[in-house]
Amino acid sequence: MSQHDFTSRTIEFEALLKEFKILLKKNGEKFTIQREIILETLYNSDEHLTPEALHQLIQQKHPDLKTGIATIYRTLSRLEESDIVTSLSFGAQGKKYELGAKDHHDHMICIDCGEITEFVDDEIEKRQELIAKEFGFKIKDHSMQLYGLCKNCQE
Ligand SMILES: [Zn+2]
Ligand SMILES: [Zn+2]
């Protein structure tokens, strides 16, 4: 398994914000400072965040800003529709979100505590390309989630 810098962003925040504004306009929704903060917080986070964790982060950093959990849910699903963010579900407990523009990586997800570990394996990436080629298939994107128990939850 190779070490990758998952924190490097392939897109500038300004470009992302512009895309988000266009998306909101198309859907007849208002652009607000709360929504910008939601996007910014996701952009600057290296974690996979539940809506509740995101809410908490925003409240800590911007205590004066009234950002309801409903706004967070609504904004996240908007962002997800356009692939600005992607989500991972961890069983019945819910979903965690991350920025879609992060460098490609796959996930190991603990179905007990929800811990998420990112990894990239060059062999797996290469094998996928070869398999697709065998079938005359052109890969545009892929996601791989391994579900199981993390070290702590196995004890
Ligand atoms: Zn766990
Ligand atoms: Zn991830």
Short synopsis of the structure:
The chain is α+β, with helices and mostly antiparallel strands. The chain has 5 helices and 5 strands, in the order ααααββββαβ. It starts with 12 loop residues before the first helix and ends in a 7-residue tail after the last strand.
Topology of this structure?
Layout: H1 13-26, H2 33-44, H3 51-61, H4 69-81, E1 85-89, E2 95-99, E3 106-110, E4 116-119, H5 122-134, E5 145-148
Parallel strand pairs: 3-5
Antiparallel strand pairs: 1-2, 3-4
Helix pairs in contact: 2-3, 2-4, 3-4
The structure holds zinc ion (2 copies).
One zinc ion binds next to loops.
Kindly describe this structure.
- The chain has 155 residues and is of the alpha+beta class.
- The protein has 5 helices and 5 strands, in the order ααααββββαβ.
- A 3-stranded mixed β-sheet has the order 4-3-5, with no helix packed on it.
- Strand 3 (106-110) and strand 4 (116-119) form a beta hairpin.
- Helix 2 packs across helix 3 (51-61), helix 2 (33-44) packs across helix 4 and helix 3 (51-61) crosses helix 4.
- It starts with 12 loop residues before the first helix and ends in a 7-residue tail after the last strand.
- The structure holds zinc ion (2 copies).
- One zinc ion is lined by residues 48, 98, 105, 107, 118.
- The site of one zinc ion has 5 residues, from loops.
